[in-house]
Each structure stands twice: as structure tokens, then as C-alpha cells.
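Please check the following for our workbook:

***
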Amino acid sequence: MLFRLNEADQLRRAETVQMRAVLGANIARFLGDRNDLETAIPGLDLVRRTSVTPPDSYLYEPSLAMIVQGGKRVVLGDATYLYDESRFLLTAVNLPTITQVLKATPEEPYISVVLKLDLTAAKQMITDIDLGDQDAAADGAGMATGPATVALLGTLTRLIDLLDAPTDIPILSGLIQRELLYRVLVSPAGARLRQIVRLGTQGNRVARSIDWLRHNYIRPLRVADMAAISGMGVSTLHHHFRLLTAMSPLQFQKHLRLHEARRLMLSEDLDAGSAALRVGYESATQFSREYRRLFGAPPMRDVKALRLTNAAELAASKQTAVRL
């Protein structure tokens, strides 16, 4: 009996390897010489990196991320998530993170898929499926990993295949995304998402305060206002906010400000002082100190290094596309 189980595991493993190889080749074809592609399928993005990357800021939205090839580190507050082709990453709320590709070469690039999740659809689906009291002990971080099963890979493959049939996308993409959402919700990691979207849960209440803070991070922080919005006491909010985000509300606000300042310096070519003022800092010295603590270098030195890295990555992607 043990032999048969091992044999079955080996067959499943071989099947997932083959599925990822086909999926990776298709994604590379759709990307061409680009590093990132926002596809014609709503909410679906494709990503490729041809080398290990330095730590970078990234604001995760509620989403499902699957690595087809390579490995990655995601740092959320004081928590670290490591995942590769064998697991998916589920994010249930908006979370500012530091990400780093750990495994990638021009010959075997890092390839991943990110699909934004429809929380309204998730809420409706939860009412349609009976999961009993599985969420009783589901309080925890708003980010979790789960196994990349054959069923999940197969559903993702069918979604990616729609890019070759654009006229089918309006009809079929929603159905396939609904299947993906179902498979995530019934997985062990799905408890995180169920806690966020179910009305009345602590996770759902904290998610409301996170959404408010995301849109008001420039303003001075008043935790009492956030507690009122979430319908929780201040101490209760602090406790569950840290559980969900691995940060206090003040740390979360700082991360939102610093991530946005980094984006402004990169995309709008702002200097450090202007970016600091734009995101709500009154002291340029405090901004520079907190920026260095989070990103490891002073603002302008960090931005210069990122631009050089991005230029090198773009050149490498173009060379990879030519070889393919």
C-alpha cells in the first residue's frame, strides 16, 4: 500500500512538472521581450525576471500569485514568506511588502502569474459552499501559502490559454476565475480569505480599517478613528491588526508612505524632499532615516540602484526573447 501511495505521489509530481513546463513556455511566448504584462484577461498579470533581484517594494492587493518557475521571498512586517513552484501565495487584504526574486537566470527565468481576486465574488461563493466551522481558528496573517495542486495548475493553464482566443475571454474568463477562486477558498490557506470577506469577523473589521488607512495614510494617524470605523475597541484593533498585517497601525502607515515615496521617485523623478512632503512627512531627516531603515539605503542612492537594476533586467529579457 505504501508503495502505491509513493508511486501515485511520483506520478502527480511528474504531472505538475510537465504542466509547469508547458505553462512557462506559453507565458514566455505571451511576454515576448517584456518583463511584465497586464493581459487582456481582467486582473491577470504575467511576470518574468532573468536574474536574482534586490529587495523591492510591492503593494499586494487581494490576489493569488503562482510561481511557474523560480523562487521568491516576501517580507511582511516582521514575517517572511518563502515560496516557489510548489506553492501559491494568497493575499487577502492590501499589504505593503518587500519582495525579492531568489531563483532566476537567463536560461531558467523566474516566471509567475498574479491574479487579482474579486472579494465580492468570494463573499457570494462562501455563502454557496458549506465549510462548517472551519474558520473558528482562522485568525492570522492576511497572507498565506498553499500547495500548487494539479487541479489548481490545470485551471490556471486553461485561463492562460484564453489569451490565444481573445473572443472567448469575455465569456469564459469569469467562469475559470470563479473555479480558481473556489479551489483557493476550499484549500487550507483559504481560511484567511474567508475570514476577511465574511461580515462580522474580526478579520473583516480589521480589513475595513486597513482600507481606510490605505486611502488616508497622508493624514496624521488616529487609531481611535480606525477603531470606530472597524467597530472595535482600540486595544482589540491593535491586537488583530498586528495578527493580520504583522505590523502595528503606525508601522503600516509608515510602510505605505515609504512605498509610495519610492514609487514617486522612480516613476515621476521626484527628489527625496518632494516625495517626502507628498506622502505626508514634515521632516526630511525623519523620512530619510525611516526610508533607509526599510530599504537599506538612503532614498536617492536606493532609487539610482533600482534604475540600474531595471535597465539591466530589461536588456536581459530582450536577449532571452531573441533566443526563444
